[in-house]
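Reopening: non-specific protein-tyrosine kinase still failing for me.
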Amino acid sequence: MQQIELQESEETLNLRKIIGKYLSKWPWFVGFIFLFLIVAYIYLRYSVPQYQSTTTLKFDKKQNDITGALADLDNLGLGLGNADELKSEVAVVTSRPILMKVVENLNLNVQYYNSGEIKDSELFTKIPITAKVISYNDDKKFISSEYIVKEVNGNNFILETEEKTDVKGSFDKVLKLNFGTVILQKTPGLSFRSKYKIVFWNPLEKVKKLEKKIQVNLPDQKAMLMNISLVGTVSEKSEAILNEVTKQYNLDGLKDKNLQAQNTQEFIDKRLEVITRDLSGVENQKEDFQNRNRIVDLQAQAQLALQNTSDNTKALLLQQTQLDLLNSLQTEASKGGNQIMPSNLGLNPSLEQAISQYNTLLISRNKTLKQATMENPAVVEMNKEITSLKEIVRDNIRQQKATMEASIAQLNGQISTSTGMIEKVPGQSKVYRGIERQQNLKEQLFLFLLQKREENAINLSVNVPKAKIVNPAFTEDIPVSPKKSLVLLGAIVLGVLIPFAIFYFFFMWDDKIYSRYDITDRTSLGVLADIPSLKDEENHLVQKNDFSELAEAFRVLVSNLKFVLPSKDLAKVVMVTSSVKGEGKTLVSVNLALTLGNKNGRSLLIGSDIRNPQIQRYDNEPIKRKGLTEYLYDESINIEDLILTSDTNPNCDVIYAGSIPPNPQELLSNGRYKKLIDQVRPNYAYIVIDSAPLMLVSDTLNIADTADATLYVVRSGVSRNILIDFANGLVKESKLSNVSFVINDVSKNAGGYGYGYNYGYGYGYSSEKKKTWWQKIFKS
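Support: Ran it again with your exact input. Result attached.
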């Protein structure tokens, strides 16, 4: 016999198999999609559509490059400085004070509805009966209260509370309710409908709702644009709210601007008073400083003193030089004897003249002495005159020297006076500059405040809105909720995902075998054929000249079986077994024997499941006959007496199991079964053994060595993966040899890899009840 080596199979991801599993459940997916589409239709039919309303504001940007008198116009509140300031305005738009004004002005704390059977329709315009809250009993604890206008009779009406109690009242008259005091008014020209509902809210609660519903975004910060949007069921109400929000926002901005301008005006007036006093004090201080220091122009006077000092210093140097000359000349004049004195020294003319006469007379005397003696009367006379002139020179030098010293003393005094004045200039200049600085600062501040007062007066007179309304509130035609396409798509997605999730967990825990790929994933043993699923009304036996799907499947099985069986002249023995009862082992055995039997070689089917015989179920006239059991325990029985020819195929013989014995295992192991096989081998081409299930009893293992090949039958959708492991164990332990699998009852879409002949899903010899059409469609 051919032995097939068992190899461990590796787990691989088979996407086709995985996808096929889900595709086989397509009716469930279609059913869920259809169900969710119905739910989506009902939701779209009765849900209240939500529409988005939007308004756009544009802010002016402050101009920081302007010059002249408007260079400091930033504090006037016109425009925004940058994108960061624009971001801060987002919080201002949705601030509670502004929203509270919106609620009060539009009376949003009262809502009106026309009640329907399923949904209520909110009213905002054309309201037949309006209400206004005069006061609240406790506005902190109160949230909302609902009333239905039950009856209107002339000027009287009846309200039904949430507790189903009636409250009577009259229009245009104060009515006390459980939460406060209200007044109802009837709109002329509008008829009243039944089930008219009025809901009173705490204004703060409506403000909270508006805070959540109003969305503010900045589409382009550089362009200084702001979009304010609101989603609601009534477009007129949403537009009115947005328009009121922008109105209150601009009024709030104008109020802030005027308040700022008024505060600025008061501040400027106060500062002007202070600056005027300070400026007057600085000017008086400057005047007093000039009077005390006899200063008209400090810089000019300092320049003049510096010039005088320079001139006096030059004159002093000249006088010092002449005084030195006089001292030298006096020294010469004081010497004894008569000698020539220096002349032409730039001294006083009278002194120069006296020295010149003295020198001339001295020179003349010296010439005379060359010709006469000292006693010469003429020389004596000249000496007297020389002595007299020399004395005159000395007197003149003394006079000149005294005059020169007096002049030097005077110059030194003038230089000292000028130097003192110059030394005072830095200190005086410092004090003077400080006084002038204070004066200039006060004057500039005074002029600046005067300018700002005029600019502020202009700002008070100009009522420019904080933001320009580029687009007044408008509503999109397409509702934002519910979105029909999105809801339908969501229904389809849910219709796919929910059954997918269900089947995912089902497949995750499902350990049943559905197709050959479930087997090949767990073992290296081959799968010879897929036997299609049969309906109850279909024939479960392969007939002569049969071209049904069942016959084709067994022809495939026979063709593949020939590659497994060894080549021999005697009959080839094929044992058909399974793990447990009900997997179709007998069906495969019977039809395999019918298919193998032909004119070229007969086939023999031996019913070897003597514990639970099943072959006789396929007889046209099932009767109790002797069979294998009788042969095994009674040696006198002849084999030819047990062999019967099939009514379906005359080339196929059958040996039935016979009576159910009390000791089947002993009978199968007593050696007569092998003797039976040996006796019938020469007469047949194929012998098919219908054996007992392996997992329940060990009978089959006693006769397994007689088989050339073993067909292990598993039933699609019934057999579990653990049975494959059981078969692998038998092969590993060499209890079975040359084993191949046959999958029975395979539906077309079993695990995505069915037989492919568009079969139903039944098992002919079972006693199942006939299924309804929807059970057949949704069979899993």
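Residues 1-9, 64-77, 751-770, 776-780 have pLDDT under 50 and may be disordered. If you still see a failure, please send the error message rather than a screenshot.
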